[in-house]
Amino acid sequence: LAKTTQPISMDSYEGQEVNITCSHNNIATNDYITWYQQFPSQGPRFIIQGYKTKVTNEVASLFIPADRKSSTLSLPRVSLSDTAVYYCLVGDRYSSASKIIFGSGTRLSIRP
Amino acid sequence: DGGITQSPKYLFRKEGQNVTLSCEQNLNHDAMYWYRQDPGQGLRLIYYSQIVNDFQKGDIAEGYSVSREKKESFPLTVTSAQKNPTAFYLCASSPGPIPTYEQYFGPGTRLTVT
Q: Which residues in chain A touch residue B104, judged by CB atoms under 8 angstroms apart?
């Protein structure tokens, strides 16, 4: 299993761009990188998924370098409502459910 | 509106009682999952089901039971054998029978057992 490491917490201010990095040194060839967002007392929400280079959607961008040993979730111009926990998951896109592991995530706090 | 519903949002039970948490989805998804989340922690997989009438244990299945009699429903029973049942329980689903990282979650049920 590709283990992931991400910061426990991060702080930023409204209007700033926030980049959350996830390390996954032993990522396998078939593994994808997936990010979720979770607000307090709610279920996680799928944000973005990628395999290499860059993926962008209406919410975020995901940057993956050529060696794929890390990835960066980029949130443009954050607002207070982006305060949440962000989870980085790595694994085969279609995988045994028991291998889909949500770690402790990164607790992002946005200040006015 | 398509989505996943979990009820109730808050549930209180006395120790020694079994309790069943409801999970319904109208997304026409094949796979469904149950997770448990403790304060400040990530999610841990309890059970999952890839098709009707079939389900598999996750990492922490002891003290829990499930059924999958209908595609849209995947209830979880927390039995009295579960040593520490107080937690936030999350149900999820994903399209297709093969588990995937793109899962859709319900709003959760917070269970308190005293």
A: 46
